[in-house]
Each structure stands twice: as C-alpha cells, then as structure tokens.
What we know:
Layout: H1 4-10, E1 14-27, E2 30-42, E3 46-50, H2 57-64, E4 72-78, E5 87-88, H3 89-94, H4 98-108, E6 109-112, H5 124-134, H6 142-149, H7 165-177, E7 183-187, H8 195-211, E8 215-220, E9 232-233, E10 235-240, E11 246-252
The structure holds adenosine-5'-diphosphate (ADP) and magnesium ion.
Residues 25, 27, 32, 51, 53-59 line the site of adenosine-5'-diphosphate (ADP).
Amino acid sequence: MENVFQARNKAKPLVYHLRDVVRDRASEGVTFRLRVPSLQISQGEKIALIGESGCGKSTLLDMLAFIAPPTNIGAFMFRPEIDNDSTDVARLWKKRHMNRLGDLRKRHMGYVMQTGGLLPYLTVRDNMSLSRSVMGLDASDTVETLARELGIARHLDKLPETLSVGERQRVAIGRALAHEPSIVIADEPTASVDPFAAEKIMSLFIGLAEERSITVVVASHAWRHIKRLGLRRLAHHTHRSQDGRTTETVVNG
Ligand SMILES: Nc1ncnc2c1ncn2[C@@H]1O[C@H](COP(=O)(O)OP(=O)(O)O)[C@@H](O)[C@H]1O
Ligand SMILES: [Mg+2]
C-alpha cells in the first residue's frame, strides 16, 4: 500500500507557492487589502477565482503575473515547468529585478484581458504572432493551428475592428497561447460577450489549455458558465470595516 510520502512524491510540482502575501491599494482615503495566507497551484491545474466586481480578482491575477508588486511577502516561489528550478519571486521584487520578472512573464505566461487588448492596427495574424515575435520565435504553424482550433482562421488577415466581440476574445486567447506558455492567466475573458458565447469560448479555452497541459488561472464574476469545466475554485471572503474605509479580501487555496 502507498504511504503518504510516496503519494506526495507523485504530486505534480507547484507552479505557485505563496505564503502570507499581501497587496494594499489605497485611493481617496479608502484602502483595499488583498491577503493570501496560503496558495498552492500545481502544474497543469485549472483554477477559478469567482467573485463580484471589486473583490480583488485582478489584484491577485496581476500579482501572479508579476505585474503588480506585493506590499508584503512571506514567501513567493514560482516554478513554471518541471525542467525549471524554483524562482524566489520575493527576492526578485525585493531586489527590484524587474527585467528578470518581465522575462519570466514573457517566456512562461500568456495573459487574456477582459476586453482583449488587441492592437487595432495589426491584423489578427500579427496580433496572435506578437507574443512569439517578442520572444524571437518565428511565426511557425502554431498561429494557423490555433486560429483553426478557435474557429477564427478565416479572419487571420483582417483587422480586429471588423470582428465581433466574441471573435476578438478568441483572438485574445489565441494570442495568449501562441508562444506556447506553460501558464495562462485570464482576467474575466468572457465578461464582455453574451452568456451563450461566453460558455462556448470558455470551454474552448479550457479545452485548448488541457490539451497542452497548461496551468490556468481564470477570474470571473460568474460561476455559471465555468462550473461544468472542472476548475478548482479558490476560496475567498471579503470583510468591510464598519466605517467603510477598509476592505480586505482573503484568498486561500
Ligand atoms: N487603480 C486603483 N487604485 C487604488 N485602488 C484600486 C485601484 N483599482 C482597484 N482598486 C481597489 O482594489 C479593489 C480590488 O480591485 P480589483 O482587483 O480590480 O477587483 P476585481 O478585479 O475583482 O473587480 C477595488 O475594490 C478597489 O477598492
Ligand atoms: Mg478585475
């Protein structure tokens, strides 16, 4: 019979290992604090952070993407792939090694924004190739293959403005996957499309990530259309102080 030690050895390595990470944001005398006592995300896991607007979803995602610096870090380890060593992200922030953080992000992560964030003057193909060219990779067949899988191949030579909102979100997903990242972070990627299209796009996105063993962290204000996709939902709760001047969201998982 397997003992606990063997079972643990078999577990997938952790991409993210956070302990006591905090980010404070203040504006006009009102303070928001995101507190993460403990968060562990394994390679290939699909994670969902579901919550109402303003609860801190983007704040967490931006920390996981090394876009926003934490205010306090107990521990923050990052290991994108099994072949990589763990990186001490706490140390990189402390020493202000922004270039190194940026390189890690470019190399290992794709990011999907709520409104796509496509460049209006580039064709769909060039938008999707952007993450590859930033890394010095050639265009290759990856973009064409992804476009086919996302059902947008016929739009490759068009400008984003000629596409529907849902099609643009598919392009944004394609762009986040095109440089073959090991992690994709998606901030309400389907919030601007109707619920029917949202469900379809989300399931397409998760399916593509699954095939490629990509670790996914997705934020959404609606659980409904991702419930059946088998994501692990992060626990969180929000407290507001009585005077309404301080809000704290605590995320664990
Ligand atoms: N630019 C900002 N400056 C200061 N505080 C902000 C800013 N953006 C958001 N906040 C605060 O952080 C909280 C969490 O924001 P955010 O992470 O964007 O939430 P969500 O993505 O869940 O809608 C907000 O409720 C607000 O109080
Ligand atoms: Mg947000």
